Amino acid sequence: MFSFRYLFILTFYYLVNNAISFRCDRRPYGSNTQASEPDGRFKLEVLGAENNAYIPEQLYVVQLRETDDESSFTSFMISAEGDVKQDPRNPRRMIPLYPGELRPQNSATAKFSDRCLYSVEHAMSSHKTSVEVYWQAPSSGNGCVTLRAMVAVNNEVWFEDGGPLTQKLCEDMRQPDDVAPQLNYKCGVCDEAKYELTFTGIWSRNTHPYLYPENDWVPKYSDLVGASHNADYILWMPGTLASDGFKDLAEHANSSSLEAEIREKIGDGVRTLIKGKGHGYRKMNIPTYSFFRADKENHLFSAAVAFHPSPDWFLGVTRFDLCSEDNTWLVERELNLYPWDAGTDSGISYESPNIQTFPQDAVARVEMSSYDRNSPFYEVDIKDMHPFGKFHIKLIRTYHRDCEEEEPTEEPPATEAPETSEESAEASEETNPEPAAPSRYQTQLDSAGDRR
Ligand SMILES: *[C@@H]1O[C@H](CO)[C@@H](O)[C@H](O)[C@H]1NC(C)=O
Fold it and tell me: Which residues form the Spondin domain (predicted)?
């Protein structure tokens, strides 16, 4: 669903490289006066942007309006200006960063400017007291963006920039919960750990009413699938292509080929396959439990749950580090989950027909604050949205291991045996369908099923 937009952005990058200087003549058409000193009669505001911070790729409404209940204006221009940074290949050259995209909200009131880059201007020079346009913030890493307005009362009296007509916003560095923290590449913990991972669904007609499927028996979650693994293994990751198995999970809520892909990597990047039962009608909010092991090498976990119906949307975390910076095992964490897009189906809403995305797009956040009314995320900010589910990760116990000790190469250490049976006993609904592989790694430690 992103390919068109990226093409668009790419085109802009080329434009930027050819038009290094941003400043352009913004005086009202036909005017031969200088701008007056801004007197506070008009104000530019990015609605919903708190603390002068923007969320990357979020769609914002930018409003230009009078502040005294009597002034009106005839023409305006709103422009976005990006930061500049030094060209790494030529330190004397500055490269402008992408300032996001300004676009008209309504073609009767605003249009793209022919004169200035990244600018919109009035469509008609009638008297108005306010106007709103869209600004889609740039992707992460583009620093700060300055939005500035020119506003004209008439051809003689006009204002430009200055305090009330300028707003500078910098990237909001706070991340949603399900974006994994920095990795601890040198995990120095010696003991092994046993964790419980619980998934609880939150998606419902009450929490997410807009476009929620009409029939209550239709919505369901796929099985919970994941792995504990080392730093090289990738189950899924924003910016990379989903595997075939992952695509099957995201599009069809079918986890079987993803499980096979994970199982193949056991002992080769993966420690434990995480597996929990998915719930549907009347059980949507019942937690699913699963257990897994982590160790010095395999101290990350990744997991995903698809929800149906949806184009290719799923919930999950990836490469979440359980080994804390002080080299102890994380004790407990709750993580709110928001939808991700697997990049394989271009549908816009839960019940859109299948539209294969070709070529396949990278995994990315589902487009939030969409300006398409057919999207469940129409003008919804991720910060105002209810999570669709949550993970609860909890350390159950640790197993003493000596750091110096040679890694055992054949049989699992005797101490692990009782754990295995304890875990099997915990399994209730789903019996372990996997033939035990003769490996020191347990192929499946989960005890999927309900515990009420
Ligand atoms: C899930 O996918 C596998 C193969 O990819 C297929 O054999 C199986 O029938 C599918 N399960 C369901 C419930 O559709």
Answer: 183-376
Number of domains in the chain: 2
Mutate to test the pocket of ligand 1, among 256, 258, 262, 277 (most ligand atoms within 8 A of CB): 256
Distance 260 CA to ligand 1 centre (A): 12
Q: Is residue 179 one of the residues assigned to a domain?
A: no
Please report, for the domain that includes residue 162, its CATH number: 2.60.40.4060
Are residues 151 and 203 both part of a single domain?
A: no
Identify the residue whose tokens are 């990597």.
265
Question: What is the extent of the structural domain holding 354?
Answer: 192-446
Length of the chain: 452
> Are residues 163 and 232 located together in one domain of the fold?
no
CATH number of the domain that residue 388 is part of: 2.60.40.2130
What is the tens place of the pLDDT at every residue in 187-233?
999 999 999 999 999 999 999 999 999 999 999 999 999 999 999 89
Dist. CA 241 → ligand 1 center (Å): 21
| pLDDT tens digits, 30-64 | 888 889 888 889 999 998 777 788 877 777 889 99
The strand pair at 119-122 and 75-82 is best described as antiparallel
Q: What is the DSSP letter of 438?
A: S
Q: How, if at all, do strands 166-171 and 53-54 pair?
A: parallel
Q: Are residues 245 and 140 in the same domain?
A: no
Name the residue at shortest CA distance from atom 1 of ligand 1: 254
Does this model's pTM top 0.70? no
Measured in degrees and rounded to the nearest 5, phi and psi for residue 260 equal: -65, -40
Are residues 204 and 161 both part of a single domain? no
Asked if the structure places residue 114 within a domain, the reply is yes
Would you say the C-alpha torsion 251, 253, 257, 261 has a positive or negative sign?
Answer: positive
The closest residue, in CA terms, to atom 7 on ligand 1 is 256
Q: Which residues line ligand 1 (CB under 6 A)?
A: 248, 254, 256-257
Helices and strands, number each (H, E), in the chain: 4, 24
For residues 169 and 172, what is the distance between their CA atoms, to the nearest angstrom?
9
